Amino acid sequence: MQRSLPLVAVQAPPQLIGAPPEAFAEEAAKALESHPGAKLLVFPELHLFGDGSPDRHRTEALRAAAEPLSGPRMQGLAELARSLGVWLVPGSLCEAGPNGELFNTQVVLSPTGELAGSYRKIFPWRPHEPYDPGDHFVVVDLGGVGRVGLNICYDAWFPEAARQLAWMGADVILNVVKTTTPDRALELVLARANAIVNQVFVVSVNCGGPTGEGRSIIVDPEGAVIVEAPDAAATTLAANLDLGAVDRVRAYGTAGVTRMWSQFRPGEPDIQLPVYGGRISPATWQPAQRT
Q1: Max Cα–Cα distance, the chain, nearest Å
Q2: pTM of this structure
Q3: Mind spelling out the 3-state secondary structure of 195-237?
Q4: Would you give the DSSP letter of residue 122?
Q5: Fewer CB atoms inside 10 A, N or C side of the chain?
Q6: Where does the pLDDT of residue 57 fall: very low under 50, low under 70, confident under 90, or very high at 90 and above?
Q7: Looking at the domain assignment, is residue 55 inside a domain?
Q8: Cβ atoms within 10 Å, residue 138
């Protein structure tokens, strides 16, 4: 069975905190106008939480804007996803935790308006970000088409994050980004590297100028660039991902030769990983099977 995922990734500057919900609804609808067949619409990290221009990232402003995922902001986003009829990733949100925490949380809304998954950023960019870290990785099944792994900005610098999502069965890693610093060039290398060493698609969508550095990118499971924004200008990246490529690359190897997911043989000893207090076990190395 062919598994295709047509998507649109929106590179744009963040909307200001307190902007009317209609503004984002119009932005989302406009992004889909030229791509009516898209099934997934993705925005950058903290897209609805701009704190002026230039963006000041003030902790007090972010905390004041935070809501629990049961709040009115999420209800409005769910209604928007339902009206658009797409899987919607509105970037990430400032989530108010039950014990006063402030989380940077990526959400996925289904075409019927359900919260299909939420992920709290595990690796806040310290010491620059005020967020409390999440404690578990998240993948979301998109209605039998494929499985996406949720990933936020600095998470991409930790290879364990992408490896865990691939092991959990992700075909695509959705890395939503708000990079305003010169290291965006390095993140492009990481996007390709994470795709190559895990044999998954990577969608890394950054916010646009004047706030962000842009240069969003979509990469295939062998590290080839499908589409890339050349600069920070507002734009949309569209691609129809053939998710069957993940299965083919893993079966026949990257460049027809390399199959890292088939590295271990039954009965081989565990490899100890003291830095984690854990191990790699050949018995559990293979990625999860999709249902």
Answers
A1: 59
A2: 0.96
A3: HHHHCCEEEEEECCCCCCCCCCEEECCCCCEEEECCCCCCEEE
A4: S
A5: N
A6: confident
A7: yes
A8: 22
